[in-house]
Each structure stands twice: as structure tokens, then as C-alpha cells.
Amino acid sequence: METIFSETHKRRNARSELYGGELVEPFERPSRAEYIVERVRSVRLGPVNPPDDFGMQPILAVHDADFVAFLQSVWTEWQAAGFKGEAIPSVWPARRTSTHIPKHIDGLLGYYALASETSISDGTWDAAYASAQVALTGAERLRQGARSVFSLCRPPGHHAALDMYGGYCFLNNAAIAAQHLLDNGAERVAILDVDFHHGNGTQDIFYEREDVLFLSLHGDPMDAFPYYLGHADETGKGAGEGFNVNYPLPPGTDFVTWRKSLQDAIEKVAAYGPEVLIISLGVDTFETDPISFFKLKSADFITYGADIAALKLPALFVMEGGYDIAEIGVNAVNVLEGFEN
Ligand code: SP5
Ligand code: ZN
């Protein structure tokens, strides 16, 4: 399996994450991608190639244009306002507030943020842009006939919504890849999100559409980030009714239980009959992940990679989360090897 990877991910190197009232080193840090690409190379998964550049158009086919412009300029504007630290929102539109978009960068930041753990700093946009290109290049390889591709995206994307960033995500790489396939001849795409966290951004982007089936297995939002989306009763809206499927699972969920939801999701994907399957691949379901509460073991990642392969669909794996960094390479590549064998 070919891996697409951009060194530009290193430009995303924030100093701070607001966690439990402290500013800590971000869980989502550059070494994550380095461990994964190292593992890809050591098991000889296949060639590792840089992305092509598809420009802004496929990003703007998914995200709000003002939001994208904000991401491009926020760091410069934040500094120009005289702030000394990284860009962290401290105020939000909340219940019963107006829908006017403020001018001051402090207000604008909260307007476009869905969480405050994701500090913005120099290079964030460059890395987010490159990460989207990594996903797009993977999608393009499938269009050219590849059976499977690994888009080693960093920063991740599945929390990024139409016009919101957060949860370590800025641009929704999986959604951008899906839209690119739809805009180039595909009629139906399925996105299976196996990251520990609910893919709220992907759900948001496709919620009213029937050309993308979105399925997500995740920590129950009653107990886990992103808290405000990901319940089982969110099934889609309008033309999209029935094309959004959530599997919220409780603290302590082990592989046997998790796999039952996966099997159900796989049956639904098969019934939908998409041309392509995109997997939002987060390995924060691992038993020792520092911010998550599922109990998957390293060998389980091989097993479920094989489960997904049984669908016999062209597959684009898009890297999302996973924060037990010492094991992230083994776990992510186990899925890919399970899929291939
Ligand atoms: C892509 C991805 O995996 N994003 C995850 C973003 C999670 N950010 C909020 C983390 C809050 C963790 N709180 C858990 C308490 C654990 N003791
Ligand atoms: Zn996650």
C-alpha cells in the first residue's frame, strides 16, 4: 500500500494545549507522524510519496470561504493585536447570542472555534493545507485505480466542520477527499470513522446529504469530547435522513463490544454500495491512550483492518488521532497490514 506523506506537517508545532486548566505540551505533536512513517518504512508497507498540489478549490468545495480566509490570516492578526501567547479563544457565541460575526480577532477566534484546546501558532495553516493535499492525493490515487492508499495526514481533520476548527483539526481532510471523489464522477462515498472521538465535523458537513454515508464509532458524547454531537439519534436530515449513523460506546469498551458495532457499520456500508470507502483512522481507541477510554489492544487493530477489507471496496485510510505516541506507529500500521493480508 502506498503512503502519502508531507514533511510540512512539522509546521504544526504548537507550544500549548489548554488541558485541565493548565497549558501543557499538545497531545497532537509532530512526533506522532514521525513514529507512523517510521513504522510504515520498517515493515515495508510500500512506497512513501509526497502529495501533489490540488490548490484551494477542493478545500473551498467543503469549507466556508470566510472560515478558510480566517485560518489563513488568524496568526498574523492575533500577533498584530498585540497578544503574546498562541491564539486561544476565550469567548464564544453561546445560547441566545446574535449571529453577527465580530471584527476583532479575539471575537473572531471564538466564532470559528469549537474548542479551546487547539492553540493556533505560526505554520498551522501551512500544515493544515498540506494535510488536506495529502488526503486529496490519496483520493486521486484511488481514481487512478489503486485498491488502497494511506494518507498520513497531520494535523488530523474529522473535528473540523463547515466553518469551525478545534479538537486538533482545521480542515476536514476526509471530507475534502470525499467531495473530490464526488466531484470527479463518484456517486456514493462512505466514510467510516473509527477514531475514538466522534467525527462531528464530517457529520456536520454531510448531514443533509445522501451521497455520503457517514458512520462513526466513538466514546459516548455524554462522557467524551466533542460532547455536543455524536448521539445515536442523529441520523441525518432532509435528503440525508438515514445516511448518518452513530455508535456511541461507554467507558471501558473492549474490542469484543467495539467490533459488534463495527460489524453493524460494515453491513450498512455494504448495503449502501459506495464506489469508495474512506476510513477516518484514529488509533486513540488503544488501551493506554492518555485521553481516551476504550480498551483495544495492538493485535485488535490487525483484526479490524481485515474486517474492513472483507468489504472489498477501494479504501482510502486518512490518519486522524492517537496519542499513545510510542505505540501509534504499530497500531496504525497494524490496521493497514490487517487490511492487506
Ligand atoms: C483528532 C482527535 O483525536 N482529536 C481529539 C481532541 C480531544 N481534545 C480534547 C481532549 C480532552 C480530553 N479530556 C479527557 C480527560 C481524560 N482524563
Ligand atoms: Zn480522536
From TrEMBL:
High-level lineage: Bacteria, Pseudomonadati, Pseudomonadota, Alphaproteobacteria, Rhodobacterales
Regions crossing the membrane: none
Residue span(s) of domain Histone deacetylase: 28-336
One Gene Ontology MF term: metal ion binding
InterPro entries per UniProt: HDACs, His_deacetylse_dom, His_deacetylse_dom_sf, Ureohydrolase_dom_sf
Keyword Aminoacyl-tRNA synthetase on entry: no
Superkingdom, natural source: Bacteria
Keywords in alphabetical order: Hydrolase, Metal-binding, Zinc
Family the entry assigns: Belongs to the histone deacetylase family.
SUPFAM superfamilies attached to this UniProt entry: Arginase/deacetylase (SSF52768)
Protein name: Acetylpolyamine aminohydrolase
CDD domains for this protein: HDAC_classII_APAH
Name of a matching Pfam family: Hist_deacetyl
Presence of keyword Hydrolase: yes
Cofactors (names): Zn(2+)
Gene Ontology biological process: epigenetic regulation of gene expression
